[in-house]
Design brief:
Layout lengths: L1 H21 L10 E7 L1 H7 L6 E8 L5 E10 L3 H5 L5 E4 L2 H4 L9 E5 L8 H18 L6 E10 L6 E10 L1 H7 L3 E2 L12 H14 L12 E7 L2 E6 L36 H13 L1 H10 L6 H19 L1 H9 L6
Parallel strand pairs: 1-6
Antiparallel strand pairs: 1-2, 2-3, 3-4, 4-5, 5-7, 6-7, 8-9, 9-10
């Protein structure tokens, strides 16, 4: 009798578990995802905005290597890249009935990052920005999930046919919040000094590492604020193209910061307790080799020169961390008190 009951339990487990295992979550699977799209860039820019989507059909390649159709809603997004790049950054929405049983089942809304232009090396800047997201994963738990995609894209405005591009998908901020039983704070301005110290320091040192000054938590510029509980808010960083590590041809430095080019480092974090600051500093130093390992995973997508430049840029950062006088100069005495 006990054996019979155990067999029934085992059968029930496989009956319910196998369908769940069959379809892996979009971001759990880190293999490059093939997507196919066809639309007019001119019409997409003309007919969509932050609140207006258009119906589109895209295709994704399943695990068997077959193309499957997916109905989505799509719009342009962003500011600088939308106005200055040939390929606009996109946002996709997928209705529940359409995404059921697909890799997108748990993702109602997604961002899609595409190359800025049609230059031969445009994909490498996308890869370098994706590396920034993966580096943030190494030093903080509060990050956006990402996944590389191979885009088979046809622009209906020209006759060049299908072009192969590299891009990546970014998790929606509400989905990030759901992972932590948290919420995104959109309706309030949160001073940087109110962010949880450890999370803020990891964020700020990461931004120094990749050479980023193009963010503001107070004004919600390239940074979301996530509330974990009544007393705890943490930064959630995104959009890393205007950084020293990526260093695209269109990179600009804000006149609000005292540097001349994006490859110049400037610490923009607020001053924190010295003991916590030193603890997070040691965390980063301990992860130096894992940081280089992240870059190595994408070396096939970079030229030898690009890979060497990223390694050099990161080594310069760790030289700051490993030298007491440099750390004092670049971080401790440079932090903001207001």
């Amino acid at each position: 009798m006990k054996l019979r009951f155990a067999l029934i339990q085992l059968c029930l487990f496989f009956f319910f578990a196998i369908p769940l295992l069959a379809q892996e979550d979009l971001f759990t699977n880190q293999e490059t995802l093939d997507l196919k799209m066809k639309f007019s860039i001119k019409d997409m820019k003309k007919n969509t905005n932050d609140s207006t989507y258009v119906d589109q059909v895209i295709w994704y390649k399943n695990e068997a290597g077959e193309w499957e159709e997916l109905e989505v809603e799509m719009r342009t997004r962003g500011n600088f890249r939308l106005n200055n790049c040939y390929y606009p950054p996109m946002r996709l929405k997928v209705k529940k009935k359409e995404r059921k049983g697909t890799p997108f089942e748990n993702n109602k809304s997604l961002k899609l990052v595409m190359p800025c232009n049609r230059a031969s090396n445009a994909d490498s800047y996308v890869i370098k920005e994706l590396i920034c997201y993966k580096l943030f994963d190494e030093v903080s738990e509060y990050t956006f999930s990402t996944r590389m995609v191979r885009l088979h894209f046809e622009n209906e405005d020209d006759k060049k046919g299908e072009q192969e591009l590299i891009g990546f998908l970014i998790e929606d901020d509400d989905d990030v919040a759901d992972r932590f039983n948290a919420k995104i704070v959109d309706d309030k301005k949160i001073l940087g000094t109110l962010l949880e110290d450890s999370a803020a320091l990891r964020h700020d040192l990461f931004q120094l590492m990749i050479g980023n000054t193009d963010f503001s938590g107070l004004y919600k510029h390239n940074q979301k604020v996530m509330q974990l509980d009544e007393r705890t808010v943490v930064p959630l960083a995104y959009d890393f193209d205007m950084t020293g590590l990526v260093n695209p041809p269109y990179a600009q430095v804000s006149n609000l910061v005292d540097i001349e080019k994006v490859t110049d480092r400037l610490y923009r974090g607020f001053c924190r307790d010295e003991a916590i600051t030193q603890t997070i500093r040691k965390e980063f130093i301990a992860k130096e080799q894992s940081i280089y390992s992240v870059v190595n995973r994408y070396s096939d997508w970079l030229s030898t020169g690009e890979k060497k430049e990223i390694d050099r840029f990161l080594r310069d950062f760790f030289e700051i961390l490993n030298n007491d006088r440099s750390f004092e100069k670049f971080v401790v005495t440079s932090c903001r008190s207001y």
